């Protein structure tokens, strides 16, 4: 049996933080219980100690988060200052309103990308599409199923993760606003660059990917 790919310290923190954001208070309570008891947590075959769990919670709530204080709670100093200047609302707040979740955070999307492809790395950049549309795939593989979406020519998009696949030598980027992966090279012509960095920014592909390219 092949060994599970090892995850870096940063990837583990990102992955656990995404799990907390996705599963909410029950997951956070479980992590706090393990931290208090000094128990490890196994994530994708890797044993994570209490120190790293604490770091992941700090990433979710920020460095000033307390052990049981909700992340939306302001500090006592700011709360007292706000109380002095905030007038009493004149309208009644509607009760029973359904809570609507906001857009997924970058941390959650990055963690999701690592679950889709364990070899991926966190990579937050903006990219520009060439003069032809770029298809999106459910997995980082041009032979995988397309998810029905594509990036329009000339458009600019944000990405949250990157992976270099050894089997085809391509670099794939995980989109932030669309649920899919795109190849930096054209699907039908490897030497053609389909996605480019914004002007003045470093290349999207690692230096070891030295195949000559031409812009599309």
Tell me what the structure shows.
The chain has 216 residues and is of the alpha+beta class. Among the domains are: 53 residues, no CATH class; 93 residues, SH3 type barrels, CATH 2.30.30. The strands form four sheets. It has a five-stranded antiparallel β-sheet with strand order 8-7-6-3-10, covered by helices on one side. Strands 1-2 form a two-stranded antiparallel ribbon. Strands 4-5 form a two-stranded antiparallel sheet. The relative contact order is 0.12.
Features:
alpha+beta, two-stranded antiparallel ribbon, 23% strand
Radius of gyration: 21 Å
Span from first to last CA?
42 Å
Strand content: 15-25%
**CATH topology-level name of the domain at 117-209:** SH3 type barrels
**Helical run tally:** 5
- Name of the CATH architecture of the domain at 117-209: Roll
Query: Quick one: how many beta strands?
Result: 11
Largest sheet: 5 strands, antiparallel
**Helix and strand pattern:** HHEEHHHEEEEEEEEE
Poorly predicted residue ranges: 64-85
Q: What does the oligomeric state look like here? A: single chain
General shape: elongated
* Global structural class: alpha+beta
Strand order of the largest sheet: 8-7-6-3-10
The helix content, as a percent range, equals 25-40%
Compose a concise summary of this entry.
The chain has 216 residues and is an alpha+beta fold. It has 5 helices and 11 strands. It is 28% helix and 23% strand.
Task: Draw up the topology in text.
Elements: H1 9-23, H2 25-37, E1 41-43, E2 46-48, H3 50-61, H4 76-85, H5 106-116, E3 121-129, E4 134-137, E5 146-151, E6 156-164, E7 171-175, E8 181-183, E9 192-193, E10 195-197, E11 214-215
